[in-house]
């Protein structure tokens, strides 16, 4: 295993590369340095911006009349429309994905926050269970 010598001072998660620590720190600051040139929406990671920019491409002529999401092919739009058939839907605030249940949205949100193990004593959450256990020893 690689030496993880770069540690976050907020949550004690460790990284083998300084660049990964810097990217991780955006979770705590809420900073979104990657802005869409089409609509101005900000993103924490360049990867999320690239995914978002594909929604602005002109070769996506099929538009959902409920939420505005666009599709390259009609069958993609038709599949998506099923998510609106239930009375309630749960959109992700970070990207434009929509979920038919809050549980599905909560699982998806982990991809944005990279936090999966919450401390029951405070508001901190951790990506790795071992870091949560280490943290819980301070309570």
Describe the structure.
A zinc finger (C2H2-type) spans 6-28, 34-56, 62-84, 90-112, 117-139. This is Gastrula zinc finger protein XlCGF29.1. Belongs to the krueppel C2H2-type zinc-finger protein family. GO terms for molecular function: DNA binding; zinc ion binding. This protein has 139 residues and is an alpha+beta fold. The chain has a domain at 34-87: Double Stranded RNA Binding Domain, CATH 3.30.160.60. It has helices at residues 18-29, 46-53, 74-81, 102-113, 129-136; strands at residues 6-7, 14-15, 34-35, 42-43, 62-63, 70-71, 90-91, 98-99, 117-118, 125-126. The strands form five sheets. A two-stranded antiparallel sheet has the order 1-2. Strands 3-4 form a two-stranded antiparallel sheet. Strands 5-6 form a two-stranded antiparallel sheet. Strand 1 and strand 2 (14-15) form a beta hairpin. The chain is globular. The two termini are 30 Å apart. 4% of the residues are buried.
């Amino acid at each position: 295993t690689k030496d993880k010598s770069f540690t976050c001072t907020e949550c004690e998660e460790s990284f083998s590369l300084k660049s990964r620590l810097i990217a991780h720190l955006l979770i705590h600051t809420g900073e979104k340095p990657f802005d869409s040139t089409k609509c101005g929406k900000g993103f924490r990671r360049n990867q999320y911006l690239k995914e978002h920019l594909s929604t602005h491409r002109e070769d996506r002529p099929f538009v959902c009349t409920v939420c505005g999401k666009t599709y390259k092919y009609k069958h993609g739009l038709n599949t998506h429309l099923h998510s609106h058939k239930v009375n309630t839907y749960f959109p992700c605030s970070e990207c434009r994905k929509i979920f038919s249940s809050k549980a599905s949205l909560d699982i998806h949100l982990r991809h944005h926050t990279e936090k999966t193990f919450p401390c029951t004593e405070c508001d901190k959450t951790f990506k790795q269970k071992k870091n949560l256990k280490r943290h819980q020893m301070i309570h």
